[in-house]
Amino acid sequence: MIFCLISIHDNIPLFKYGITFDYYRREYQEHQKTFDTFQLLYLRQTDNNHTIEGLFTNECKIKNIDVEREFKGKNRKELFTIDESHSFERMEMIMDKLIEQNPTKEHEKYKKEIERLQTEKAELEKDYTHKIELQKTIIAEKIERLQGLQSHNLSL
Length: 156
What we know:
By secondary structure, this protein is of the alpha+beta class. The protein contains four helices and five strands. The chain has two domains: about 100 residues, no CATH class; about 50 residues.
């Protein structure tokens, strides 16, 4: 996910957000031809791009900072502006939170499998420790018994 500064009009910045799989080609070559300014300010990786983008679009609409504007004959969406209540830093935090809270189902599957394996490992370590302690006790008892027999034989 990216945020790029694309325009400043009446001291109000306008940002483009969205998915990018090929940043250099799509964003750098194409968007620099379309927008007066194109400065990358935010770049995050997520494996749930389409969901995150839709949720962020809804956030912008709810906050009434979404913008649709024409640039060089093309209608552009996935734009937002900022105001006193919604700083750029706040929008970064919102995007970061959306990415964190919305992993793909596959990501969740891996997370659950990791947790299961960690629990299994802890149980094995606990079981192994218990077995070692049991072996130590058995050996200590054998030593005691043999020492007792040895003392008994020496006294004869």
